[in-house]
Structure formats: C-alpha cells, structure tokens
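Lecture 7 notes: from sequence to structure.

We start with a single chain of 87 residues. Read the sequence below before looking at the structure.
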Amino acid sequence: MDRFFDNYISAPQMTVVFDVLRDQQDRDAYGVAKAKELLETSYEWLDTKMADRTWAIGDDFSMADCAAGPALFYAHWTHPIDPKLGH
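Now the structure, written as tokens:
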C-alpha cells in the first residue's frame, strides 16, 4: 500500500503541481487531465479498499499509513477528494 500512495496518489499529484510551475507555453493540459483521471480512479479504489479497514493494511498502523497521510493531504489540495468517498 505504501507504493500505492507513492505511485497512484503522489505521482499524479506532482504532475499537476509541476505543470503549474512551468511557463505557460510549456504546460501540458493532456498530461494534467490524465493525472486527474488517475487521481479520481485511485480515490475511488482506495475508498472501496478502506471500507472494512481502520488502517491502510488492516488493523495496525504501518509505514503505508505514513505514506498515506502526506500523499492524501497534498493530493486533496491539488484535486479535491469527492466528499461521497467517506472511507
């Protein structure tokens, strides 16, 4: 799960952030749209996965939860998590 947060939450989130930092003529609207799609898919997958869990891999706090906190915090700023995803 820690790899999930790195590869499917943090990576697309940073794609959006880095695009904003580029000069206007170098921006990648297609890449940003794909990154946001991946975030949406990842949020939905995670919501389903967390429906019967307290922590990322089950009942115990782990390194995966350490990866989840900042990844989800910044991703939500970049592309908000739909409130209907309650887990």
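The mean pLDDT is 96. Keep this in mind for problem set 3.
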